[in-house]
Design goal:
Blueprint (H helix, E strand, L loop, with lengths): L5 H13 L3 E2 L9 E4 L7 H14 L1 E5 L8 E8 L2 E4 L10 E6 L1
Antiparallel strand pairs: 1-2, 2-6, 3-4, 4-5, 5-6
Helix pairs in contact: 1-2
């Protein structure tokens, strides 16, 4: 698919910078942060733009990264210094976005 437009990327970046990203303390061995749609339902548009970019323009990579033994393949989408991913199988069913430094 075509990469997100400049205006979509501006909306994605605005969303990313305007919401809280909480540290996933249940998985300290794989440091990352997450955001849940229900925390900011008024920002659903930006949330869905990022989720759509992950599904439609992301790249697949084994998780966890070597030297760990891979247990699944995840679709990632990079924005600036972070990679973003979801664990759901549909855009409509996604309510949580993860991120970690590249």
């Amino acid at each position: 698919m075509d990469k997100p437009s400049d205006s979509d990327m501006a909306e994605i970046r605005a969303f990313i910078s305007s919401v809280e990203w909480r540290f996933a303390k249940t998985m300290p061995q794989w440091p990352h942060f997450y955001n849940v749609l229900s925390w900011n339902p008024e920002k659903q548009g930006g949330f869905l733009k990022l989720v759509s970019a992950i599904f439609n323009n992301g790249y697949k990579e084994a998780w966890p990264r070597p030297p760990e033994r891979s247990i699944r393949v995840v679709t990632y989408f990079n924005v600036d210094e972070y990679r973003y991913w979801v664990m759901d199988t549909t855009i409509e069913g996604t309510n949580l976005i993860n991120r970690a430094k590249n």
